[in-house]
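As a representative case, the lines below give one protein's residues and fold tokens.
***
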Amino acid sequence: MPMRISDRLQGLQGAKSQSDGPIREVAVRLRKQVIDRIDHNALAQLDEASKKAHLKGELESLISVDQNHLSGAERRTVVQKVLDEILGLGPLETLLGDPTVSDILVNGPNTIYVERHGKLQQVEATFRDNAHLVNTISRIAAQVGRRVDESSPIVDARLADGSRVNAIIPPLALDGAALSIRRFGAKALSIDDLVGFGAMNEDMRNYLRAAVIAKCNVLVSGGTGAGKTTLLNALSNYIPEGERVITLEDSAELQLQLAHTVRLESRPANMEGRGEVTIGDLMKNALRMRPDRIIVGEVRGAEALDMLQAMNTGHEGSMGTLHANSPEDALQRLVTMITMGGGRLAPETLIEIIGRTLDVVVQAARLPDGSRRITSILEITGVENSQPVTSEIFTYERHGVEPDGTIIGEHAYINESNFLERFYRVGALRRPGG
């Protein structure tokens, strides 16, 4: 009687080993057998639950005939692996089902990292080979009507649950295809959640609430994974009911809980190089849709000027995010992006527009210990000598590091807001003694 695979695994629980091979080999064979056996036209008419039940029945039948030496646990493992391959994304399915995983990073077929609670760690899951990984990427791209091959080796897409996907394959990726998945929680975090996590304090929450209600134009700045989209989602909850909000995104990530929201998404060119719709195109159309506020998921190029002009022409209270390492860098990047995007205005004119349009820059950061903090809230009150006049209202002061690597620090209110009268006037804050 053949040795059970589970016997080969004894003493190696929790470790990646060569013993995973036999189960994988059985799963590969069964996948081919069940694909040859099923009626694909009939299967296509079923909903997802019925497809899964039908395939599971076929697989269990095949196992009973050809793999009766497997234990019950091994059979369940094999069935799940095959179902993940046919209906899902193979070795990624288990990770996608783990609510603690915020990022999945695939560096070639044999190396997969995940981020949990701000920390990266390698997991045991692997793809069979690079062809298996590329096939999985191709399936993701096909779901959104795109393709990935040597002539089009980069793809941006999103999964059905809203997760953002970026993939790049050889010849651009030298060590095998690479895949990055940014996941978003089923429930968007609120400002109160962020206060509870220590991302900001209560004074900052009250300030940001007042800024949104008073229709300050807000730019959220930060690096990759700093929590910009999370913060933008949370801030949107302070927009008064009844206002019409239009969102513009390259990949839909925002989870606004507002009743009157219209979501727009850009589109890349098709295989013939036609049909591209940029954020700038969407911005121009959004202005014809009678918005009260416009929210740009991420400002990346020349559309920055369109956003500023919208903020300055009757759409106060609009918001957006931008990649930058500090509030000052964010303001300079706006000028750079507009100029590089073909803008013909002089830098001094652009700075004048920024100084008259933007009100608040909120800087988000992911610290070395994996925690996310709002590290600065900066107000812009005008322009002098061709430079924006700014005042930092809140900052995050770091005092040291615990033995386990945890950052020691606190938020501080360092300057009085220049917008207090504006906040009082609309009832966003209560006057002292009032």
Q: What stands out?
A: Residues 1-19 have pLDDT under 50 and may be disordered. The first helix runs from residue 5 to 9. The chain has 15 helices and 15 strands.
